[in-house]
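Weekly puzzle thread! Below is a chain. First person to post its structure in token form gets bragging rights.
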Amino acid sequence: MDVVSFFAGCGGLDLGFKQAGFRVVWANEIEPYCRATYQRNHPATELITGDICEVDPLSIPSCDGFIGGPPCQSWSVGGKQRGIEDKRGMLFLKYIELIKFHQPKFFVIENVKGMLDEKFKIIFDNFVKNLENAGYNVQWSLLDAVKFRIPQNRERIFFIGFRKDLKVKYEFPKSTCTEAISLEKAIGDIVQTPNFYPKKISLKSNKIDNERSETIFYNHDVISSDFGPFYYRGNRRRGWNQPSFTINATAEFAPLHPSSPKMIYFGRENWNFQKDKLSDYRRMSVRECARIQTFPDNFIFEYEDIRNGYRMIGNAVPPRLGYEIAKSIKESFNNAKNSDSAAWHKNTPIDSHAPNFLKTSVLVGYYKNDLHKRLILHNKIYYVRTDGRKGSIFKEDCQKSPRFLLLHHKDIAEIYSLEEKEPLLIHSSMLQSMGFKTNGETYLCFVLSDTEPRRIKHINGQWLTPKLDELNYSPFITTLEKVLK
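Winning reply:
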């Protein structure tokens, strides 16, 4: 199954879906510093760098699912919690708009626990309502990464939606472990001294290059700036036998390495370092944070500013959690297909045992390019001129819609089901409002009953395919017998 990824970052969620057998065919990310890392680790995916609000919806390829986590700072308890009053909060609504426009089979939305704050209840309920009104059965759940063999406490909310016509029954993945993975198991083998970089360092002319490092681990780099007030408000160190605190996106806030001395507690939000051991405290390295997020060691992060290394990792969905989500989605689809759901159309064979099967009527129609095909399938209509010029079909010749549409382009031909009702006669302005480019004035419109191609199995068990050598650019109505070999 194909998915497209929004707010992709370095591709943590994407990696999880790829590990579960999905193909990530297209991705969008606004931050240019993510580009080199994403392309290095996801070479088969087309990456578009830029603002999602400026992406042409029609440039997004056809796919089975949308995945992504809109920026979380607008909802985070660590931020100002301005919600949709923040421009970044509005991106959640933009994502919903694209889901409405493309109608993928499913979507995944990830965000922070702060969305559940009482102050956002009305907004939260409206998000869910908008997604349901777009034609989806929507479920959400708050998942803690530590329950899925990820060595950190990290609570995130996930929205999963399936198109209602597919009648997919979904259950969120269950915990995959009974005991948290410790820091010892996660990073205990990284014993080399890391590379230390101060906060203000400029690496534009001296890019971090672990290939020339004395360590054997790529990105084993630590920001070594002073510890700010954040570290004095709470304990930022956990021991070797515990899971980590949440890996966040701010380099200066990275958790302390478990080899660091314990911090001293003086009272609520009043912690301090042991003064005689100050030189023994250090933050976790970029690679250690990546390990805790479950990125494999061969996932290489490229950055000129070390803070961007921490930022990419902290903003990512842990790949292992992405994998569990993706696996649960795939299982739900498999269960739907195995239950012979009547709404599951993909590759559903047409009943070749029906009386006069080969005499069934077919509208043979040409599409110009991939964009034209996407518009046809998105709007679920195929239109034909009625003005008498070449390529016209007259309304009196078509009082009832053919049963099928044979949609072809060059050497590609697919068969779709049409609704069995009289075709609509509509003005070209209506088609233009749907994104089509037209030259005529009035058109007959045939309505697709589904947007998944059908297969035809002959009585003797042979799969039949459309015959292409007699097809032309002008639409015409014929029978299955004449277009199959």
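Puzzle host: Confirmed. Bonus trivia for everyone else. The longest strand covers residues 136-144.
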